[in-house]
Description:
Helix 8 (242-273) runs antiparallel to helix 9. The protein has ten helices and nine strands. The protein folds into two domains: 2-222 and 317-334, Spore Coat Polysaccharide Biosynthesis Protein SpsA, Chain A, CATH 3.90.550; 243-310. The chain has a nine-stranded mixed sheet, with helices on both faces. It is an alpha/beta fold.
Amino acid sequence: MQNTASAAPLRTTDVVILIPVFNDWGSLARLISEIDVALGSARLLGLLVVVDDGSTLAVTDDLRNQPYQNLRAVELLRLRCNLGHQRAIAVGMSHITRTGVGAHALVVMDGDGEDRPEDIPRLLNALRGSSGDCPSRVVFAGRTRRLESARFRLMYNLYRLVHWLLTGISVRVGNFSVLTPDAMARLVIAPDMWNHYAAAVFRSRVPFSILPLPRGKRYLGQSHMSYSSLVAHGLSAIAVFGELVGARLIILLSGVVVVAVSLLIVAVLLRLFSNQAISGWATNAVGLLIVFTMQALLALTILALIVLGDRSHAKIIPLRDAELFIESATRLSSLP
């Protein structure tokens, strides 16, 4: 891996901020400036790691050698190809873990302005203030309001319903969050991180909490994610719970088979041991029940084989495999 960052190792900082970006350099420049101000207001020192997710546009000059006051360095990881922002987060976390940057917490946020820099201290305070028998290791920003169109909100709510029906888990959070170093160390060895960050936290049973925060407004332009990309993103979250989804569907199909077989038995008993006349539609219904039962049994068998087969497949471990996707690591800015 090419590394053009030859500066001396950085000393321990308060927080590392991880941001995946695809071509949105204008928004990122404004975001970094506002992060620098937000850290200063909270008397925090930070390191910012930007993961360039295979952008087709070059990094703009307004991101290089800027006189930040509270960001001791801005580092850029360029990926060899576009992986999607979830996998970019996994690569960034793995790189931070490998390089051994000392920090009290890691913040994950998007680079378009919808995750507000002024909320970073609030998330950090919530993480520090967590107590009890099982204190939170991750604090997510729970959205109290959304600024998207009515169509988007409708599709998002439908997705939340499908996600809840398949997994039993309600979707309430995105990427914006803060986590402890031990939580990050646990996540970067979880194969689920390669599909979806938040879902991996839920699946790994890392203690987490949710802090209600409003969503900000995108700085520039439109999102690069199309509706098909959003659907793929949603499916990635569901895929993390593949075994759970498979088990729930198997239980559902098993119940359907039991009901269908019970109806068949009742129909046969009525035909053999009752003097009641069996209508023509009842005979047709029995035939349909037989066909339906056979199809349900076939689907049940296939689903069980898929769930069992998935357990034997080799999976990507971010900490082990992420470096393969990094083309270069450079330092854009640093404190004197």
